[in-house]
Automatic annotation (TrEMBL):
This is SEC14 cytosolic factor family protein. Residues 209-384 form the CRAL-TRIO domain. The keyword Cell inner membrane does not apply. It comes from Arabidopsis lyrata subsp. lyrata. Residues 53-65, 107-121 have a biased composition (Basic and acidic residues). Residues 41-52 have a biased composition (Low complexity).
C-alpha cells in the first residue's frame, strides 16, 4: 500500500492581497468557498488559527474520539473514460452475456448448539452415540481383534484431535456425520467407521506433526474471518499458470501424492483450530479465485483435484460453511452445467459465483473489508508485510458512490491528535482529495491532498497521516463522474499527541 506524502497548502478565506486575486476555483457543499490556493513555506500558523486551542486544564480532560458524517452531492468532475474504463465495461458486458449465477439459493447454517436440535435429531444423535459406544467397547474401529487381556478397556478413537464420546465436542463431531447422511443413523455410522479406517491408513495424526516442504503458500492460505466468525480459506488456482510450479507439483504420480499430503495436512491443522464446543464455529468459509485458472485441459491438475475432492467428501463432512467462486471465467459455467445436476439443493445453496467486476462487492457481503486481502478489494495486507497503523481488528466503513455523485466523509476532530487513514475505491476511475478545515472561522484550510484523478492501474490503497493541532474536521472527498456505481472503503485511527 502506498503512503501519500501530504501536500501542505494553506488557504485563508480572508486577508488575501487585494491585487491579482483570482475568482473562486470550486465551491464545496461541505466547506466555505476558497478563493485560491497559495503555496507557503513551513511557518508557524497565524495567531487567528491559535485562538481555537483549548486552555491547559481542558487538554488533560478525557479522550474524545472523532465523529464521522457522510454526505452525497452531485459530481463536479467531467467524465473522462479512457481505455481502462472501456475495458472494464466490456468485461462487465461479457459477464452479463455469460450469465454467471451469483447465488444458487438461500442457505442458513445449522446450529451447532446441542440445545437447538429437534427431538428427532436428538434421537438420531443418541442412537449414533450408542452405536459408537458399542464399537469402542468391542474395538470395532480397529482392524485388530479385541485382545483378551484388556480388562474391558474401551478403545480410544480421536478425530481431529477430539476423543469420541469424551465430552460435548464429540457430539458436534458426530452431528457432522449425521448431517452428511441426512440423519440416517446406520449410514452415518458406516461413514464414521470408514473415516476412522482411512485416517489410520493415511496416518493422519503423524502427518499433522510432519514438516512437509512445498511452494504452495500462495496457492492455499487462511486469512481473516467472515462476518459470522468463520475462518476464511483462499484457493488461488491462477498460481498454477506458473509452469515451474505446475510441473513441480503435478508432473508425476509421486509429486501428486506429495501435493495431496500437503493439502490434507493444511486442512487438518486448520480444522484443529476450530471451536467444536456446543455453539462454536466449526466450519470454514472458502474463497476460490478462478482468475487465470489453467482450466479443465490440464489432466494432471484435473486428476489431483478429483482425488482430493473425493477424499474431502468421504472423510471431512460438513466443514464448508460457504463456497465463493470469484473472478469466474466463462468456461467454468460449462463445468458447472455438467456437475450441477448431480448436486443436492443443499449443496448448491452453499455456492456463490461472481465475475471479475463483482468479486470484491460479493466478498464484502460475507467478509468485512478489513478482513479481505488487498488483492481482492479489501484493506488487509499479508502478515509478512508491514502495516504498523492498522490490523485486522481495525474495522472499515463502506459507502456506495452512485454514478455522477460526489461522496464526502467528514471526520470531526475534538482534540490534538495525529489522524491516520486508509482509503480505496474498487477500480478507482474517480477523483480524490483530502483537506483539513479548522473550526476557527478565519483560520487556514490545509489541503492535504490536491484533487487527484485515480486510475484503475494506480496503487489500490492510499494511506495518509495528518497532525491536528486545533479543533476542526478532515474532509475526504471522492468524486465519481462515471456511469457506474463505485464501492468506497475507508478506516482511520487516532493517535493522541
Amino acid at each position: 500500500m502506498a503512503e501519500e506524502q501530504p501536500t501542505t497548502t494553506l488557504v485563508t478565506p480572508e486577508k488575501l492581497p487585494s491585487s491579482d486575486v483570482t475568482p473562486p476555483v470550486e465551491s464545496e457543499p461541505t466547506q466555505e468557498v476558497l478563493p485560491r490556493e497559495t503555496e507557503t513555506p513551513e511557518t508557524n500558523p497565524p495567531e487567528s488559527a491559535e485562538t481555537t486551542t483549548k486552555p491547559e486544564e481542558e487538554t488533560t480532560a478525557e479522550h474524545h474520539p472523532p465523529t464521522v458524517t457522510e454526505t452525497e452531492t452531485a459530481s463536479t468532475e467531467k467524465q473522462e473514460l479512457g481505455d481502462e474504463s472501456s475495458s472494464s465495461q466490456k468485461e462487465l458486458a461479457e459477464e452479463k452475456k455469460s450469465m454467471i449465477p451469483q447465488n444458487l439459493g438461500s442457505f442458513k447454517e445449522e446450529s451447532s448448539k446441542l440445545s437447538d436440535l429437534s427431538n428427532s435429531e436428538k434421537k438420531s444423535l443418541d442412537e449414533l452415540k450408542h452405536l459408537v459406544r458399542d464399537a469402542l467397547d468391542n474395538h470395532q474401529f480397529s482392524s485388530i481383534p479385541k485382545p483378551e487381556d484388556t480388562n474391558n478397556t474401551p478403545e480410544e478413537v480421536k478425530i481431529w484431535g477430539i476423543p469420541l464420546l469424551e465430552d460435548d465436542r464429540s457430539d458436534v463431531v458426530l452431528l457432522k456425520f449425521l448431517r452428511a447422511r441426512d440423519f440416517k443413523v446406520k449410514d452415518s455410522f458406516a461413514m464414521l467407521k470408514n473415516t476412522v479406517k482411512w485416517r489410520r491408513e493415511f496416518k493422519i495424526d503423524e502427518l499433522v506433526e510432519e514438516e512437509l516442504v512445498d511452494d504452495l503458500d500462495k496457492v492455499v492460505f487462511m486469512h481473516g474471518h467472515d462476518r459470522e466468525g468463520h475462518p476464511v480459506c483462499y484457493n488461488v488456482y491462477g498460481e498454477f499458470q506458473n509452469k515451474e510450479l505446475y510441473n513441480k507439483t503435478f508432473s508425476d504420480e509421486e509429486k501428486r501424492k506429495h501435493f495431496l499430503r500437503t493439502r490434507i495436512q493444511f486442512l487438518e491443522r486448520s480444522i484443529r483450530k476450530l471451536d467444536f464446543s456446543s455453539g462454536g464455529v466449526s466450519t470454514i468459509f472458502q474463497v476460490n479465485d478462478m482468475k487465470n485458472s489453467p482450466g479443465l485441459g490440464k489432466k494432471e491438475l484435473r486428476s489431483a483435484t478429483k482425488q482430493a475432492v473425493e477424499l474431502l467428501q468421504d472423510n471431512y463432512p460438513e466443514f464448508v460453511f460457504k463456497q465463493a467462486f470469484i473472478n469466474v471465467p466463462w468456461w467454468y459455467l460449462v463445468f458447472y452445467t455438467v456437475i450441477g445436476p448431480f448436486m443436492t439443493p443443499r449443496s448448491k445453496s452453499k455456492l456463490v459465483f461472481a465475475g471479475p467486476s463483482r468479486s470484491a462487492e460479493t466478498l464484502f457481503k460475507y467478509i468485512s473489508p478489513e478482513q479481505v486481502p488487498v488483492q481482492y478489494g479489501g484493506l488487509s495486507v499479508d502478515p509478512c508485510d508491514c502495516n504498523p497503523d492498522f490490523s485486522l481488528e481495525d474495522s472499515a466503513s463502506e459507502i456506495t458512490v452512485k454514478p455522477g455523485t460526489k461522496q464526502t466523509v467528514e471526520i470531526i476532530i475534538y482534540e490534538k491528535c495525529e489522524l491516520v487513514w486508509e482509503i480505496r475505491v474498487i477500480g478507482w476511475e474517480v477523483s480524490y482529495k483530502a483537506e483539513f478545515v479548522p473550526e476557527e472561522k478565519d483560520a487556514y484550510t490545509v489541503v492535504i491532498q490536491k484533487p487527484r484523478k485515480m486510475r484503475p492501474s494506480d496503487e489500490p490503497v492510499l494511506t495518509h497521516s495528518f497532525k491536528v493541532n486545533e479543533l476542526g474536521k478532515v474532509l475526504l472527498t471522492v468524486d465519481n463522474p462515471t456511469s457506474k456505481k463505485k464501492k468506497l472503503v475507508y478506516r482511520f485511527n487516532v493517535k493522541p499527541l
